[in-house]
Amino acid sequence: MNPVALPVLYCCAICGNLVEKVHDGGGGLICCNVPMSAAGPAPAGADDIHAMELRPGDSGLVLTVGGGGHPATQRHYLRWAALYRPDLRLVARLLLGPGVSGSFAFPVNLKGPVLSIVHCSAHGLFYTIHEL
Ligand SMILES: [Fe+2]
């Protein structure tokens, strides 16, 4: 059992749409005429290319993925990165894409626990919990 509260995202197995409920009214989600399945992020391993570090920078918080070396090709890249508070309030999301790699600055200043999530085009969703 995972003691970490994580946002639940839903993925369409047909077209790849990814949806996050901002309020759960209890109903199911349908895309391409089929029910969407829940897609929870997996923990990023410390030596994984999706491992995340979050540190204060000059203009906010800087998230570094895979030591700055996560691929950024047309076939393998980070689609987006997001920061959440422990109560799952979304703080900020950066839309990334092919050609964007290294470290990403979020224009926010947070203290305490922060959850980061990245969406890799080749490997799916990963999360890390940081203590700032
Ligand atoms: Fe990846």
Fold blueprint:
Blueprint: E1 9-11, E2 18-20, E3 30-31, E4 34-35, E5 37-39, E6 42-43, E7 52-57, E8 60-65, E9 78-84, E10 90-95, E11 103-106, E12 113-120, E13 124-131
Bound molecules: fe (ii) ion.
The site of fe (ii) ion (FE2) has 7 residues, from loops.
Quick tags:
mainly beta; Immunoglobulin-like; binds fe (ii) ion; single chain; 132 residues; five-stranded mixed beta sheet
Tell me what the CATH architecture of the domain at 41-131 is: Sandwich
CATH superfamily of the domain at 41-131: SOR catalytic domain
Number of helices: 0
N-to-C series of helices and strands: EEEEEEEEEEEEE
What's the main sheet like?
A: 5 strands, mixed
Please estimate the helix content.
under 10%
The molecules bound to the chains, other than polymers, are: fe (ii) ion
Shape: globular
Q: Nearest-angstrom radius of gyration? A: 15 Å
Classify the fold: give the CATH topology of the domain at 41-131: Immunoglobulin-like
CATH class of the domain at 41-131: Mainly Beta
For the record, give the distance between the C-alpha atoms at the N and C termini, rounded to a whole number.
25 Å
> What structural category characterises the helix and strand content?
mainly beta
The count of DSSP E runs of length 2 or more, i.e. the number of strands, is 13
Strand order of the largest sheet: 6-13-12-9-10
Task: Estimate the strand proportion.
Answer: over 45%
Unreliable segments of 5+ consecutive residues: none
Average pLDDT value? 92
